[in-house]
Amino acid sequence: MCLEQPESFSNDKEVEIEMEDVFEEALIDIDNDDAKNPLAGVEYVGDLYAYYRKMEVYSCVLTNYMEQQSEINGNMRGVLIDWIIEVHDKFELKEETLFLTVNLLDRFLEKQVVAKNKLQLVGLVAFLIAGKYEEILPPLVQELVIISYENYNKKDVIEMEKLMLNTLQNNMSFPTAYVFMRRFLKATQADKKLEELSFFLIELCLVEYEMLMNSSSFMAAAEIYTAQCTLYGVKEWSTTCEWHIGYSQESLMKCTKLIVMYHDKAKTGGLIRVHNKYNASKFGYVAKVEPTYFLVQDS
């Protein structure tokens, strides 16, 4: 009798474990709630994001493009983008506009040598073009002249706009990290706090020149993974996340450690405008959230 009972118990236990594994590995249909919404385009969303993943390759820049610049460097780029983030926030423009601005800026600097005294002008014009592309009411040229403390005039802005458009061959339609952030946050079934923290972290990375080594989709995935770990206190990456986002937890770890480092210095470094922006009620004061140090300490 005693010999039979453990065998029966063991079999039952194995069945329970197998059933648990089935539930843990179950994929969630993240588009199910939008199935009846014709504007959501559920039947096309898979093909759209497959296309975005192919196209993002063409919007990537060389990670060493600053080597061709004689008067500017990666630190100056960071200072410029830090300032643009503040300007973007003051104008209360769409997030898409900010991410496209940085994309245009890097793609232009990769192809065009720029003098130090023209770098701010390049940033303003990238901001202007992105605004025209994304906004219903984009910033006016004269407004940009004013916020530059009139270092440039209207003619300077228009001439640089022509040069930038010609240099980039009018190619504005590339997927930025924002496009992937929206889809990936849906895969995580994110609440407002996770969304705000994810955007806080990715904007911290916008100013960092070394993060250009990562594609837009990879950056979006790494930011969201880091934000989840930060909020939940454990490594959080479900089967649904990996399936829809396309990156494994292991592949994100190296980038995640850099993100934690940038988070740690967000309020004490030289570039603190992202921290100031997200240290406000409209963003739930997510800048006050402590970095997830256990990700850095993990081997």
Automatic annotation (TrEMBL):
Keywords: Cell cycle, Cell division, Cyclin. The keyword Cell cycle applies. Interacts with the CDC2 and CDK2 protein kinases to form a serine/threonine kinase holoenzyme complex. The cyclin subunit imparts substrate specificity to the complex. The lineage of its organism: Eukaryota, Viridiplantae, Streptophyta, Embryophyta, Tracheophyta. Belongs to the cyclin family. Cyclin AB subfamily. PANTHER family: CYCLINS. GO terms for biological process: cell division; G1/S transition of mitotic cell cycle; response to gamma radiation. It comes from Solanum lycopersicum. GO terms for cellular component: cyclin-dependent protein kinase holoenzyme complex; cytoplasm; nucleus. Residues 82-166, 179-261 form the Cyclin-like domain. GO terms for molecular function: cyclin-dependent protein serine/threonine kinase regulator activity. Essential for the control of the cell cycle at the G2/M (mitosis) transition. G2/M cyclins accumulate steadily during G2 and are abruptly destroyed at mitosis. Residues 175-292 form the Cyclin C-terminal domain. This is Uncharacterized protein.
